[in-house]
Specification:
Number of domains: 1
Structural class: mainly alpha
Radius of gyration: 16 Å
Strand order of the largest sheet: 1-2
Largest sheet: 2 strands, parallel
Helix content: 55-70%
Number of helices: 9
Order of helices and strands: HHHHHHEEHHH
Mean pLDDT: 86
Length: 160
């Protein structure tokens, strides 16, 4: 919900970073069934691509390959936690709400790092993580404050 709010508020770097951590935690929540906490910490760390690879191996579901691009793009947002390169070189960023927004486009022909994501893709990914982890999204994604629920469902084709 925090990531979704940040995207709607136009806080692209923060929205990307919050989504990175949310997806990381959801994946690790499922992987915790078969991995120790120490292995989750030491082997996976904050490496979203490695975590995704382990999740896909455990799920044994080839349909998850369609989210590889989303994971690759989302993983880039971990790097902005230490923004030296971002501050010195700059970057181009786009975080579209729906697929029709075109986050898959190239932002520039230059050599700047590019960060492109689509909230709809992330929402769909969350649905799949909950499905594979056999968790109830409706229970997990209900918040006490109505404002939080509003941002969880706003422009969400996959609401809880």
């Amino acid at each position: 919900m925090c990531g979704r709010y940040a995207v709607h508020a136009g806080l692209i770097p923060l929205g990307g970073n919050l989504h990175h951590h949310a997806i990381e935690l959801l994946l690790k929540g499922t992987l915790a069934k078969s991995m120790t906490s120490q292995k989750l910490k030491d082997y996976l760390g904050h490496r979203l691509r490695r975590t995704w690879k382990e999740f896909k191996k455990q799920a044994n579901d080839p349909s998850l390959d369609k989210f590889d691009r989303v994971i690759r793009e989302l993983d880039k947002f971990e790097n902005i936690r230490y923004p030296d390169e971002l501050v010195n070189k700059g970057a181009t960023m786009a975080f579209d709400v729906v697929k029709a927004g075109g986050a898959k486009r190239k932002l520039s022909a230059g050599s700047l790092p590019q960060y492109t994501l689509c909230l709809e893709d992330i929402d769909e990914l969350v649905v799949e993580i909950f499905r594979i982890g056999n968790r109830n999204r409706k229970v997990f994604l209900q918040f006490q404050k109505s404002e939080a629920n509003q941002f969880m469902t706003r422009d969400n084709k996959f609401p809880p």
